[in-house]
Specification:
The complex is a heterodimer of chains A (283) and B (99).
Chain A lengths: L1 H38 L3 H21 L3 H26 L12 H26 L20 H7 L5 H11 L2 H22 L11 H7 L5 H25 L7 H18 L6 H6 L1
Helix pairs in contact in A: 1-2, 2-3, 9-10
Chain B lengths: L3 H20 L3 H26 L3 H31 L13
Classes of the chains: A mainly alpha (283), B mainly alpha (99).
């Protein structure tokens, strides 16, 4: 009996040293890549550092015996979300701007001081109750004689089912309603992203409501067509002419005025008085 | 090992993300920093789930990941629209609501 207990103790210490090594490696990786995310001037490098950070956190999940979470983290975060980030960065072509890096020095110093204060408060709050023996692991479930940790995986193995089925059973019994809500949320997010990403072309086929709204106020058809042509030419010129201006800071008032005009022009098309809209706004 | 170590890492990651949100000016970098903060909270939840030996914390992590995916999808669509409309992603440029 004592031999068995000794063997269990040896196995436990081996597991705990392995966990310690894994923890320190992945914690250092996570913290370093997290700092790199907020300090990289190139956004693509920042996104790649975010991938590294998410993988390191997946490793920490492994050390926490949450294998399902680790796989989900790699699949969803590192596989989907960061790919989405990189896709948007490449789509917008903003991977080279280092002008948009940091706010003013004074704000940065103030923010660093405030965050350091918060970090100190958090660490002081953590170190008290959560580093003692009482918080080793698996506190709510069974504990061995000396209060040693038997781990989540062993607790799950006692029920003769794996981590995934345990999680799935809990998710579909107690958390069924939040699960359905999350499905609804994903559907709404998909529809919303599709709507937001739709390009509004100034073609008459796409603007079914514009002739109806303008028909009530007796705008002649040729005026409307000319206005539409002007709008389309204007927006084309804006897209062509905007590209080189993106490289510089975008702070000069000349650029802002051009942007204001371009934002007015498509709205005048939907308005019932397209040709009378512009003087009112300038006045 | 006690979960305090994990909580320390999580707190430092959260503060890193918060500092990034406060300091950086690019909207996409702000979103990445929000992802950092969400991951820090996820780590806290997973550590607590392990300490209590239950699955509730892991279910919460699952839901946080789902909500983060939805948030990123909508936020990046908004960012693309914002860039096409304003020509910049600088969140410090005023006049966002000026007529």
């Amino acid at each position: 009996m004592t031999l068995l207990a000794q063997a269990a103790d040896v196995a436990a210490t081996d597991a705990s040293t392995a966990e310690t090594i894994v923890f320190y490696v992945f914690a250092a990786l996570a913290l370093g890549s997290g700092l790199a995310v907020i300090t990289m001037r190139n956004i693509v490098h920042g996104a790649l550092m975010l991938v590294l950070n998410l993988l390191a956190i997946a490793g920490l999940y492994l050390a926490l015996e949450s294998t399902f979470l680790s796989i989900i983290q790699v699949l969803v975060y590192a596989g989907a979300i960061t790919v989405l980030f990189l896709f948007v960065i490449m789509l917008l072509g903003i991977d080279r701007d280092d002008l948009l890096s940091v706010t003013s020095k004074r704000n940065a110093i103030l923010a660093s001081a405030a965050v350091a204060l918060l970090a100190g408060a958090l660490l002081v709050g953590i170190v008290g109750p959560y580093t003692g023996e009482a918080s080793l692991c698996n506190q709510g479930a069974t504990t061995t004689a000396g209060g040693a940790c038997i781990g989540l995986e062993d607790a799950l193995a006692g029920e003769e089912q794996g981590s995934v089925s345990f999680l799935g059973e809990r998710m579909f019994t107690r958390y069924t309603f939040p699960f359905e809500l999350s499905a609804l949320l994903l559907t709404v997010a998909t529809i919303g992203a599709t709507l937001l990403g739709r390009r509004r072309d100034p073609e008459p086929d796409d603007e079914d409501d514009a002739p109806i709204g303008s028909g009530g106020t007796h705008v002649p058809a040729d005026v409307l067509a000319a206005d539409l042509d002007a709008v389309s030419e204007h927006s084309d010129a804006r897209v062509e002419g905007d590209r080189p201006e993106l490289r510089d800071a975008g702070q000069d008032p000349e650029l802002d005025r051009g942007r204001d005009d371009s934002s007015v022009a498509p709205r005048g098309r939907d308005d019932s008085h397209p040709h009378r809209d512009t003087p009112e706004r300038e006045g | 090992m006690p979960i305090g170590y994990y909580l320390v890492v999580s707190a430092l990651l959260f503060c890193t993300g918060l500092l990034g949100v406060m300091v950086r000016r690019n909207a996409i970098v702000l979103f990445m920093c929000i992802e950092l903060m969400l991951n820090a909270v996820n780590l806290t939840l997973a550590a607590a789930a392990r300490m209590w030996g239950g699955a509730d914390g892991q279910v919460f992590v699952f839901f946080v990941i789902v909500v983060a995916a939805a948030e990123v999808v909508i936020g990046l669509a908004l960012i693309v629209n914002l860039f096409f409309r304003r020509g910049t992603l600088d969140v410090d440029v005023p006049q966002l609501l000026r007529s």
